[in-house]
Amino acid sequence: MQILKPKRILTCDDDFTILKDVCIAFSDQIVKIAPLNELKKLYPNAKFIDFSDCVLAPAFVNTHIHFEFSSHKGQLKYGDFLPWLGSIMEHGSEVRADEERVKSAINSVLKSGTASVGAVSSFGAELNALVASPLRSVIFTEAIGSSAEKIEQSWGWFMSRFDAVNALKSDKFIPALSVHSPYSVHKELAKRVIKLAKECDLICCSHFMESLAERRWLEQAKGGFEAHLKRFSLNTKPLYSVDEFKSLFDGLHTLFTHCVFVRDFKEFDKSLHFITHCPVSNRLLGKRSLSLNKIARAGLCLNIGTDGLSSNFSLSMLDELRAALFIHSSTELNTLARTLFRAATSGGARALRIDAGEIAPAKLADFALFNAPLCEDFELAAKIILNEKEARALFIGGSRVF
Ligand code: MCF
Ligand code: FE
């Protein structure tokens, strides 16, 4: 047992409660939150850790990250989605990270106070580094392939990578599945992946409604996608309507990533569908941002991912939240900061089906410490997001990472 004394606790519960003059007792889980003298009486042999100049907060959960795309040197085109997609398909092998790059990416993730990631795995090149790291990882093995003739090939490639993930499975390395997107995955392939997810009780994710080009393509079979697909000799008819694609995920725990061009969020299932927001990626690959108000009105759980370095300048959740504060400039600053902080912690944990993301008894002891700003409670989230470049300390499952 350990007892930690912070200056304030940002619980990230539903009411965004902030606690003062209390400590937490924890092992791999949080056991009790109470005044120090009470905890010392209950656990006289516990190790005492003094962080009385820090704010204790749940560690961040980065729900969408591509570690393998960490190595581009300017070859990728920014500003609009299709030029980016063309550039990543053209330079795909050059931007793939080797193990050293993946390790340094993992390190920057940890330094930002992140304990858990939802890692989209396209090739399986990041698995060993993730297993060896302290991170809690949900590995979304990606299915991709639009050709009817190559279904067996795409499925075989997918299953071999999924088997490799499964072989490494542990309580900190959790298999999951990804259907890349409606424009890149054949119906038969998607159905097989979803059947597997249901049979094995795995969570799923998909890039969805990321660009106007994607929406135009699915709704009207028009726009820039046709020329893009022709360029790579791919199927030049949409593979689904929007509803058809979305209904593949009925009854399945799914993270829908981006959703910038979703028309009606009421179509999603509040208890099983989660909206993953990648603010910087959306800015670099387009002009529109996700409507946080629409998501709140539909009662959906918001969570946040950095996406990969192929569409970001950083994998730090602090950088991502800072950018989001400026991107969503029509919302009152402190209110927005609280929404973002919850999305980056409890929202992410719910989306990844991890029992963390809140400072409360029985939750996993995944938490970060940040320098305590001299401010009122209602400003605390904004001040941490604005001022902190790295966490002061990070605990994952009760073990101190740094
Ligand atoms: O989320 C961004 C933008 N949307 C789609 N895909 C990716 C993103 N970042 C990396 N990717 C990967 C994707 O996983 O790009 C590859 C896929 O493996 C090529 S997309 C045909
Ligand atoms: Fe992505």
Q: Could you explain how this protein is built, in words?
A:
- By secondary structure, the chain is of the alpha/beta class.
- The protein has 2 domains: about 1-60 and about 360-400, Urease, subunit C, domain 1 (Roll), CATH 2.30.40; about 60-350, Metal-dependent hydrolases (TIM Barrel, Alpha-Beta Barrel).
- About 35% of the residues lie in helices and about 25% in strands.
- It has helices spanning about 35-40, 80-90, 100-110, 125-130, 150-165, 185-200, 210-220, 225-230, 240-245, 280-285, 290-295, 315-325, 335-350, 380-385, and strands spanning about 1-10, 20, 25, 30-35, 45-60, 60-65, 115-120, 135-145, 175-180, 205-210, 255-260, 275, 300-305, 365-370, 395, 400.
- The strands form 2 sheets. Strands 1, 2, 3, 4, 5, 14, 15 and 16 form an 8-stranded mixed beta sheet that branches. The protein has an 8-stranded parallel beta sheet with strand order 6-7-8-9-10-11-12-13.
- The longest helix is centred in the last third of the chain and has 19 residues, at about 335-350.
- It is globular and about 70 Å long.
- The model has no long low-confidence stretch (mean pLDDT about 95).
- Ligand MCF binds near residues 144, 207, 281, 310 and 311.
Count of runs of 4 or more consecutive helical residues: 14
Specify Rg, calculated over alpha carbons: 21 Å
**Mean pLDDT score:** 96
Count up the domains.
2
Q: Can you write the helix and strand succession as a string?
A: EEEEHEEHHEHEHEHEHHHEEHHEHHEHEE
End-to-end CA span? 18 Å
CATH topology value of the largest domain: TIM Barrel
Helix % is: 25-40%
